[in-house]
Amino acid sequence: MKNRVQTIDRDGKPEYAVIPWADYLRLTAGEDEMSDEVLYARAKYTDEDLAAIPSEIAERIFAGESPIRVLREWRRLKVKELANRAGISPSYLSEIEHGKRAGVPTLIAIARELAVGIDLIVTDGGERAG
Length: 130
Fold this sequence. Notes:
- The chain is mainly alpha-helical.
- About 50% of the residues lie in helices and about 10% in strands.
- It has a single domain, classed as lambda repressor-like DNA-binding domains (434 Repressor (Amino-terminal Domain), Orthogonal Bundle), CATH 1.10.260.
- The protein contains 8 helices and 4 strands, in the order ββααααααααββ.
- Helix 6 crosses helix 7 (about 90-95).
């Protein structure tokens, strides 16, 4: 798939992502009750959150493994347990771990339960593939 995301960097690190309007609408479909500010506030994280992730976990994610699966295993959570905490079915979580797209609120819920920033489980065009 062609990368349709433009990043705006600050100090050599991505600060913003600019995506096509159609992708934005797809990612926010059905979320009229949440403003961009609310979504951002729910997905926000601190540098301390990321600093707490061991390097071997980060290496697995950057090597292409499903970040949700890697982080779930690191947190010693079963699929069913994380799914219940995030308010989704275990089969849906398994599908997400294997590359199925998920809505922003679902990804926020998963990231919150894994105690990581949402950007750790999301890539340029949506969630990371398994």
